[in-house]
Write a structure and sequence with these properties.
This protein has 279 residues and is mostly helical. The protein contains 10 helices and 2 strands, in the order αββααααααααα.
Length: 279
Amino acid sequence: MPSTIPAPTLNRIFAVVSLIVLTPALLLVMDFPAPTISADVLGSALSFQLNQNALLLLALPVLTVLGTDWVLQDHPEVRAGIVRFLFPFWTVPAVAALTLALLLTRAQALPTWLLGLVLGGLSIGLLIAAEYNIIASDSSAYEISRVGVNIASQVLGLLLFVLIHSTRERSLVTATGALAVAFALAVDMLAPHLIGNRRGLGASALIALLIGQAMWALNYVRISSASAGIVLLAIFHISITLVQQHLQMQGKQERQTAAEFALIVIGSIILLWAFEFSK
């Protein structure tokens, strides 16, 4: 993508990516006790081990949020106080870090683990750079960076919906996970330069609730995780587009949008047929 990023900021991005890549490697060689944490949530007993995988799932997103904020603080419009709220720009890199952590916990062979770590770190670095470029809507790299982040959001959403569903955990866990992922991705796609942070947060919360309810319902259907991910992604994409159209165009839907919805539905049906009914 075209870069409007100065060298000192690129150095910050490199430092953040280096830390993200080194953290899983350090956790891999560390040896420490793994206590079990139990809690009673809504009358349902939940427990998990605070082992290396759990620490990885916590550490990578947190480090990515902190690192992304550090990089974005170097943007001229942030230093000038023009952009006050940076949280919408944290979310996609953080979701990418969570996806990387989940994939690393499932990697069996060391070469696969190393390849995933390198590619994941590179992807997170590119996303942080793209988020830097879209802070200023008049940036020369804004359009291509915005498109890149939107595509990454859709891919990450699909991957995480599939991974969360494939855990076959109780609905309280999977629905909450899908809800959190949908909210984080929707905030980035709706708030910056589109409908504003306040309306963007409200709309994102509604979309996240819809995804959480859909995941809850899919848990009671005999469906593969790939198919569940496709269904959830279709709902997510259509919901995002409807909100954008409604709030930006006062509810007037264009033919292009209707055609896009039709293509999504047709594509989803074809993929569902491939995964479910052609077996």
